[in-house]
Design a protein that fits this description.
Blueprint (H helix, E strand, L loop, with lengths): L2 E7 L2 E7 L6 E7 L6 H10 L5 H14 L1 E8 H17 L5 E6 L1
Antiparallel strand pairs: 1-2, 3-4, 3-5
């Protein structure tokens, strides 16, 4: 949304506009490994990223077959928090699941 202000100069009304940039977006990618169970990945995708069972299963299969899968796209701070939550959940269960973010 743009912020608009008005400046008065010699009885002339001049409209100036300051553009507000949208925040950068970041992809949160989950990476495949040989130890983390498929069930755990689906559970993480549902609980941390809010995906339905069907969507989480589809993403998990993409991770399994292609080495990585897109869990979601967020602003930088939210993406960082999601990555941290995934790593925390994985470590607490003894899994080496990795998650990373990259600028969209």
């Amino acid at each position: 949304m743009a912020k608009t202000s008005y400046e008065y100069d010699s009885n002339v009304l001049e409209k100036t506009r300051e553009d507000i940039k949208k925040p950068s977006r970041y992809k949160v990618l989950m990476l495949n490994d040989d130890y983390t169970t498929m069930e755990f990945v689906v559970d993480v995708l549902k609980k941390i990223f809010g995906h339905s069972t069907m969507a989480a299963t589809s993403i998990m299969l993409n991770i399994h077959h292609h080495g990585q899968g897109l869990a979601g796209i967020y602003t930088k701070e939210i993406a960082e928090a999601k990555v941290s939550q995934v790593h925390s959940a994985a470590r607490s269960r003894g899994f080496p699941l990795k998650c990373e973010m990259e600028k969209e």
